Amino acid sequence: MLVQGSPLCAGFLLSAVIVAGGTPPPGETPRPVWKSGQEWPLAFERAPQSLAPAVDFVARGPGYLLGVGARGALIRGPSWQLEMRFEATAPPPRGEGRDQLPNPSHYFLGQDAAAWRSAVPNYRQVLYRELYPHTDLLY
Fold first, then answer.
1. For the residues of 45-110, what is the DSSP string, one character each?
2. Tens of pLDDT along 59-88?
3. Which of 25, 57, 69, 138 is such that its CA lies 20 to 30 A from the CA of 50?
4. Which domain holds residue 89?
5. Residue 24: inside a domain, yes or no?
């Protein structure tokens, strides 16, 4: 994630090891989902409305879901969640997918074909223009 634009631009660096499944039993080594410095191969897609009202785009990976919006971001695993929130911006900007990837997602869940989602575009980045005056946010 990169915040750019104004002289007061801020960057966020998550320096941690996120571990799936909570605390391991004594004597077992935790299984890292992501290590600091490791690049996440993210593919963002528009979030379904049922996910959360503040989440515009989601990216999924082994053991986590990343949701991003103009008000912040959340990373959710099987037994943990990390949230980052931005102070209120009025009105909140609408995110736009950038650098569309060649492979869309398809969701054929359940018996009701009307609820299926097909050819959902994936993007390499999500941009929020003017999150604050003269400041864009790029995930």
1. EEPPTTT-TT--EEEEETTEEEEEETTEEEEE-SS-EEEEEPPP-SSPPPPEEEEE-S--EEE--S
2. 988 888 899 988 888 898 988 899 988 887
3. 138
4. 2-6+36-138
5. no
